[in-house]
Every structure is written in C-alpha cells, then in structure tokens.
Design a protein that fits this description.
This protein has about 220 residues and is α/β, with parallel strands linked by helices. The protein is about 45% helix and about 10% strand. It contains 9 helices and 6 strands. The longest helix is centred in the first third of the chain and has 21 residues.
C-alpha cells in the first residue's frame, strides 16, 4: 500500500453543520424545527441518489430548494416566510468547532495536501468555505458538478485521483456519512468515519479503517 499524500474531506455533515440553518431560525420555526430540518436533509440526499440512479442531474442547490419545499409541505407548522432566510443560511452553514484546528494541523505537515470533495455545487462550496475561513487550508475544493452525478458513484471519487495524480490508496477520505465512507472504501480510498451522532455500524463489507467521534482525532491517526 502506498503512503497517504492527500486528506479528502466531505463537506456537509463533516465540515459544515447541515442543521445550522434551522438553528438560526429555531424560534421562528417553532417546536417542529428539528423534524423539519431532518426531512429537509433526508430529501436533499434522496433526490441526489434517485436522480443519479435515473441518469439525470440537477445541481445540489436546486435539490436543496426542492427538499426545503418538500419539508414545508410535510411540516406546515413551520412558516413558509422563513424560506428565503433558511436558504441564505444554508449558503453559509457554520463549520463545526473542530474543523479549523484539525485542518490547520494537517496542513502544517510536510507532504500532505487537503481537499474537499462534495455533492455541493461550486457556488455553495465557495460560500461555505469562505464563510468558515478555511479557504487557505484547502488545496482543492471539488464538486460533483464536474461529472454531473452524485456520491457514491465512483466517477465522483475519481475527481480526487485525477486532480492530484494519485492512486486511490494514497488518499485518506474523511466523512461523517456512513454511506459516503462505503463509497470511498469501494473506490479504494482509506476512509475514516466521523461518527458524530454515534450511529450503529452498517455496510460491514466496506468498512472504514478508523471510526472516531470528531475531527480532532484525525491528525493523530496512523494509517
């Protein structure tokens, strides 16, 4: 196995809190805010997977808008007047508290490159990376928009090997989404699962090399 030279991070749920948008409008959203946010996220991912399976594509911002409208339909107690504010907030999601320190430590090590590989559209990723102040820590920000299909398709993970001219086993892939870790393992990356929510293990035949609770542990791991 080759030595790792690139650390690749998923964006949504790994670096950026996907529930931060509803968090900024929790009082106005009311008691069903958490259920609303879960539906929004679930449908956003479902649309990405089903469109890819059907050989179709719409960018992630479009899917985010469609999923939000579905959440409003499912949870009518949340005022539709929040739509614009929630979308604006989604463009500038909060980074988790452990992000900057972990990326800074990795960036300081000689020989490692840092990349983001995300379902997000370029506009979404540019806004989130800029708002979180981590742009200078990233050597590449790669969007599925380049191949017009979504993770876990292998063509998406191949954006990393093509960009850096490496073999899959030279990339450490870090994600909080177990299905994404599965896809990365199938492609040949060396995946780390950030199990922030203490979810049960699945996809046992495509397991991560390490499971940790947050990003602070990533720079300390020996892979």
């Amino acid at each position: 196995m080759n030595a790792a030279s690139v650390y690749v991070f998923d964006a949504y749920g790994t670096l950026f809190d996907v529930h931060a948008a509803i968090g900024r409008h929790r009082a106005a959203a009311g008691p069903d805010a958490d259920r609303f946010s879960e539906i929004w996220r679930t449908k956003q991912l479902e649309y990405a997977w089903t469109l890819t399976l059907a050989g179709c594509y719409a960018d992630f911002w479009t899917l985010t808008e469609r999923a939000l409208d579905h959440a409003f339909d499912r949870v009518p107690s949340v005022p539709r007047a929040l739509r614009r504010g929630l979308l604006d907030a989604y463009l500038r999601l909060d980074a988790y508290a452990d992000v900057r320190a972990a990326l800074t430590e990795l960036k300081g090590r000689s020989g490692f490159s840092i990349a983001i590989l995300s379902n997000g559209s370029p506009r979404m990723l540019d806004a989130a990376v800029e708002a979180s102040g981590i742009a200078a820590l990233c050597d590449a920000v790669l969007s599925v928009d380049a191949v017009r299909m979504y993770k876990p398709r292998p063509e998406v993970y191949a954006l990393v090997t093509g960009r850096f001219g490496i073999t899959p086993d030279e990339a450490v892939f870090v994600s909080s989404n177990r299905w994404d870790v599965m896809g990365a393992a199938a492609f040949g990356f060396r995946p780390i699962w950030i199990n922030r929510s203490q979810m049960p293990e699945e996809y046992a035949d495509l397991a991560p090399e390490r499971i940790v609770r947050d990003l602070t542990a990533v720079p300390t791991l020996t892979l």
